[in-house]
Specification:
Blueprint (H helix, E strand, L loop, with lengths): L4 H10 L14 H13 L2 H11 L10 E2 L4 E2 L6 H14 L3 E6 L26 H16 L5 E5 L4 H10 L9 E5 L2 E3 L1 E2 L14 E3 L5 H7 L2 H7 L4 E6 L10 H10 L3 E7 L9 E5 L2 E5 L6 H5 L11 E10 H9 L5 E5 L3 E2 L5 E2 L6 E5 L13 E4 L2 H4 L12 H11 L4
Parallel strand pairs: 2-18, 3-4, 3-9, 4-5, 10-18
Antiparallel strand pairs: 1-11, 6-8, 7-17, 9-13, 10-13, 11-12, 14-17, 15-16
């Protein structure tokens, strides 16, 4: 691609980001092109706006928060079979696809590589990817259909992820696996200057799980899904080794209720568990983060003694493909996170911080829920469907996930 270097310099000067070309002449031709490509793709107005919002991070939007209705999967009684049969029919007809968000690294787990390649310590030594693939293969056999699996990687781990699958012969599921890469945004320092990484290129960070809709759309994956006859898409994370991507009851409820989005919840372990919970925000489905829940709200109960805000969002959601396309066309709001970032300063020195020094910007998947008029919430059992691997030790660690997995599949 041919670049107009003078035009790029003018743009950088306009936005006070001239330092991005400080080491341009020291790069080889390939990296020079990569850097100019990066610069031309940056929405500087957006980055300026996001940086300015970090100065007002304490200002919360005013919103009316209310509890949301849910259905308990295990209190459906006679309706259970009705919903299950409805969902089974759609699954057998090839109308379901699964999406796994796997853009993260296993750094917090002490693992050098994509999180999906992490071995949680089962006797089988299977990785998270293989555990999820085994599940999909079993479900495909059960319904006599090939359920397509779409895996969202990041620029950081895409090559390593694909190489891992190749090395393992795609766990025997190759024809049904499709990779796509999530979007990224530049990181900025506390002065709003875009950072340069050790490779001489702009330091970028993945745009959060909320970028999944836009990434599915831009990568052409939604078109591929439609070609395959897919109407419903389950989206979940790679770190939950008990995720049930194929749930006929959830599908049946969504189809019966005529909604284009549905989510699974587990009841909070206690009123003050640090999790986001389903709610209604200004009359629309949403998720409220635990830091925004007052003590009074956290402890409030209904007439049956159930917590009003007790339905934890566990990143297990089902969408009609029309909703994904709609959400992918509408940019979600970005949230800032203050992180530690190694970078090259304007004088060419490598800076390795010992405390947060830069902002990354990410969108949250549930911010799109407000785009739908209603969604079905299905309460499921934690011990059957939620065994995340987030921390090296303690809560949500390989040890707790391993126990839940072994108990569920009766492996111990």
């Amino acid at each position: 691609m041919k670049h107009n270097i003078e035009e790029i310099k003018r743009k950088l000067k306009k936005y006070g980001q001239e330092h991005l070309l400080n080491f341009y002449d020291t790069l080889d031709e390939k990296k020079q092109d990569q850097l100019l490509d990066q610069i031309e793709k940056i929405d500087f107005e957006l980055i300026n706006s996001l940086y300015n919002k970090t100065k007002n991070a304490d200002k919360k939007e005013e919103a009316v928060i209310e509890s949301i209705d849910f259905i308990d999967k295990y209190k459906l009684n006679g309706d259970y079979k009705y919903y299950e049969d409805l969902g089974k029919k759609a699954i057998r007809e090839g109308k379901l696809a699964a999406v796994t968000m796997a853009g993260g690294q296993g750094t917090r787990l002490g693992h050098n590589g994509p999180k999906g390649t992490f071995d949680i310590g089962l006797d089988s030594h299977k990785s998270l990817f293989e555990l999820l693939c085994d599940y999909l293969k079993n479900e495909s056999a059960k319904y006599n259909v090939q359920i397509p699996w779409f895996i969202m990687t990041s620029k950081e781990n895409n090559s390593a992820t694909i190489e891992f699958f190749k090395k393992n012969k795609y766990f025997g599921y190759e024809k049904n696996i499709h990779f796509f890469v999530q979007g990224e945004l530049p990181m900025v320092d506390t002065e709003g200057k875009i950072l340069i990484g050790e490779d001489g290129l702009i330091k970028e960070a993945a745009d959060g799980h909320g970028g999944v809709y836009e990434s599915l759309l831009k990568s052409g994956m939604t078109e591929k899904m439609k070609e395959l006859g897919v109407e419903w898409v389950f989206i979940g994370g790679v770190d939950n080794c008990l995720v049930k991507m194929v749930d006929p009851v959830l599908m049946g409820i969504a189809i019966d209720k005529g909604v284009t989005a549905a989510g699974k919840s587990v009841v909070k372990a206690n009123p003050h568990e640090k999790v986001g919970v389903f709610c209604k925000k200004n009359g629309k489905p949403s998720v409220i983060e635990y830091i925004d829940i007052s003590e009074e709200m956290a402890e409030a109960t209904d007439k049956d003694g159930e917590l009003l805000y007790g339905e934890s969002h566990i990143l297990c959601n089902l969408f009609n493909i029309s909703a994904i396309e709609r959400m992918g066309k509408t940019p979600l709001p970005y949230h800032s996170a203050f992180k530690k970032a190694t970078y090259i300063d304007k004088d060419g020195n490598k800076v390795v911080p010992d405390k947060p020094n830069a902002y990354k910007f990410e969108a949250f998947l549930f911010d799109a829920f407000g785009e739908v008029d209603d969604m079905a919430i299905l309460r499921v059992k934690r011990e059957e469907e939620f065994a995340p691997v987030k921390n090296a030790t303690g809560v949500d660690s390989p040890e707790t996930a391993r126990k839940l997995y072994n108990d569920f599949y009766k492996l111990s």
